[in-house]
């Protein structure tokens, strides 16, 4: 998914309604942050889910949001780059939307700051769903069930506000924070085996991967270059947003939760396995002027690679499927 500055400026006016996050209003959703103007309810989640799986949101009614975000793959699609309408190839790898309620920025450029705004990007991207809100509303305006839901939940006609708020609410409800590692951290005995614990120690202490992959979701949300390439070619990362030279080749640090389900890896899906990813960092990445100073080579044994992989597998939690 991509977003340039011009598209962002077009989208923002549609969404200017108080988006500051509030505290919990319902104990059932107490752990999930949400905007003041978009509190979470079961009815809104169900409505958003219907829209998320509705192919009418794309040109020619070909694909839904779920085409690139499959639940069984932690809401990714298993492809290097997603396939949009008419077989078009998206610019980047599809990121997981699990735990997106807690993210502080969205898209690989890190430019979008709310889920409500993010919803619009793939809908209007020519390589993805290739539609427009005008076309979507033209098709959905005849859906009496949707119109009834818009009235009962939002007290307004079906419009861009309703669609973005409903889908973003469904996405906020998708949480995955009950992995075996989480259980280990909460003190549950036997949650991890010796290899997994050794991998966690490597990750957090010896290699200090938590400099970038920190916090509950194993990301610090920063937009940096990991030296994936010496020449980034067409996709220059955040540089596409503002044209700032220091932002060439920079992309948002991804969450590592459920990473065993979200292969292939990197913004372009260029690495098929976690082992490839580990070896990339072990060599210190490739030479690139904007590469983060954190990325430095290190020595690692086959045993330690296996331990790291074991630890990363312990971050898998598919309870959201229920």
Tell me what you see in this structure.
- The protein has 322 residues and is an all-alpha fold.
- Helix content is 32%, strand content 2%.
- The chain has helices at residues 5-11, 42-52, 115-124, 133-140, 144-154, 160-172, 180-185, 194-206, 239-242, 274-282, 302-313, and strands at 21-22, 34-35, 223-224, 251-252.
- Strands 1-2 form a two-stranded antiparallel sheet. The protein has a two-stranded antiparallel ribbon with strand order 3-4.
- Helix 3 crosses helix 6.
- The longest helix has 13 residues, at 160-172.
- The chain is globular and about 60 Å long.
Core attributes:
322 residues; mainly alpha; two-stranded antiparallel sheet
Mean pLDDT: 91
Numbering strands along the chain, what is their spatial order in the largest sheet? Answer: 1-2
Number of contiguous helices: 11
Could you describe the largest sheet, including whether it forms a barrel?
A: 2 strands, antiparallel
Overall geometric form: globular
Q: Flag low-confidence runs.
A: 1-25
Report the order of strands and helices.
HEEHHHHHHHEHEHH
What radius of gyration results from the CA coordinates?
20 Å
What class do helices, strands and sheet pairing give? Answer: mainly alpha
Give the quaternary arrangement of the chains: single chain
For the termini, the CA-CA separation is: 28 Å
Strand content: under 5%
Number of strands: 4
The portion of residues assigned to helices is 25-40%
